Every structure is written in C-alpha cells, then in structure tokens.
Amino acid sequence: MKKAIPEFKSEAEEFEFWSSKGEGTDSTKFVDWSQAKRARFPNLKPTLRTISVRLPVAMIEDLKILANKRDVPYQSLLKVFLAERLTEERRREIGIITSPAKGHSFIERRPGCDYAIRRPGAERASGVERTQAKAIERAREIEPKAALLVERVRDTNAGGRDKWRKP
After folding, report:
1. In what order do the strands lie in the sheet with 115-118?
2. Residue 8: how many CA atoms within 13 Å on its side-chain side?
3. Mind listing the pLDDT tens digit for each residue in 19-60?
4. What secondary structure does DSSP assign to 76-103, as a single string?
5. Which residues contact 36 (CB under 8 A, 6 or more apart)?
6. pTM
7. Rounded distance, CA 119 to CA 96, Å?
8. Measured CA angle at 25 (ends 22, 26), to 5 deg
9. In Å, what is the CA distance from 48 to each residue of 45, 89, 126?
10. pLDDT by residue (tens digit) across 116-163?
11. Residue 98 pLDDT class (50, 70, 90 cuts)
C-alpha cells in the first residue's frame, strides 16, 4: 500500500519534501506510476517573481524603440532578450566543457514552452516540437548519429536550471 502524500502548509514545504533532501525523493512510495495518465495543462503559467533592476534611461529608451518596432511591450521584449542570452551562455559553457562541433545537437526549452532542436553555432532551430520527448525523437530523425545534449527543465536547489544532460 502506498503512503499518503502529506498536506503542505506552503509551496516551500512541498518543495523541500519532493526535493533531493526530502522524504519524497522516491515518489514510488507515494504514487503508483503504472496507473498514471498523461495530462496537459495549457493554461499553466511558469512561476514568476517580480524584481527591480536599475537600467540607464538611454537603454530603456532603446528597448522601447525596438519593442515599438516589433509591436510588443518593452518588458516582454526584455524577457525575450534575457532568455536568448541565457541560452547563448549555457551553450557557450557547454562548448567549453565538451567542445561540441560536428555531430552534436541541442534540445533547448524556448520561452513559449516548446523545444528547439539546434546544431552548434546555428542561428535558427532545425526543428521545434511541443514536448521534450518529441524534440529528442525529431533530433534523432534529423541527425541520427548526433550526440544529443538536452537542456534540463527542472530548477535545482540553487534556484536555477541545471546545465545539460544526455537523454
């Protein structure tokens, strides 16, 4: 018989329970995964945190001009720019560690919550899929012999995404 999942007083308490330090690290004690069914939550929004950043006025004005040209709110454009830069930095970090050249493909989560298949140094994605599993499958179709590196989508205890992993 499976253990009952406890009632949590806060999201932090639940996180601690299911994290690598808590009792819930082995979820099979609490959930019969053979009875699990796939679910989709199309309206689920990622957890957001409001921050305050001091930027030079000229930078904000430039951002507003670019946003106006693209007909998007400037704060949304700023989030896109940050997401792109973070992806670029993660790629660069992996490049230093594994020297990906020919024969590598990356599966990256995009801000729209879909997954891009990229080759090292490519400006554009080779393909885009709605799920990570489909992206891995598609990447293997595109480049069967490529070594795949998949961006982790879970946050670590340190609060950020873990680097890359092999599927």
Report:
1. 127-129, 115-118, 104-109, 147-151, 164-165
2. 11
3. 766 676 788 888 888 888 888 877 877 778 899 999 999 999
4. HHHHHHHHHHHHHHHHHHHHHHH---TT
5. none
6. 0.39
7. 15
8. 135
9. 8, 21, 29
10. 888 877 778 888 888 888 999 998 888 888 888 887 655 555 555 555
11. very low
User: Which residues, in sequence order, are bridge partners of residue 161?
Assistant: 155
| Amino acid identity for residue 62 in this structure | D
Buried b (16+ CB within 10 A) or exposed e, 130-139: eebebbbebb
| 147-151 and 104-109 beta bridge pairing | parallel
Q: How far apart are CA 151 and CA 143, in angstroms?
A: 18
Locate 161 and state its tokens.
């995404």
Tokens (6 digits) for 87: 């992806």
Residue 97 has pLDDT above 50, yes or no: no
Is residue 16 scored above 50 in pLDDT?
yes
Nearest CA-CA partner of 107 in 122, 99, 96, 51? 122
**The amino acid at 74:** Y
Amino acid at 43: N
Angle of helix 74-98 relative to helix 57-70, nearest 10 degrees? 100
- DSSP 8-state assignment for residue 155: B
Q: How far apart are CA 57 and CA 160, in angstroms?
A: 29
Helices (H), the chain: 11-18, 57-70, 74-98, 132-142
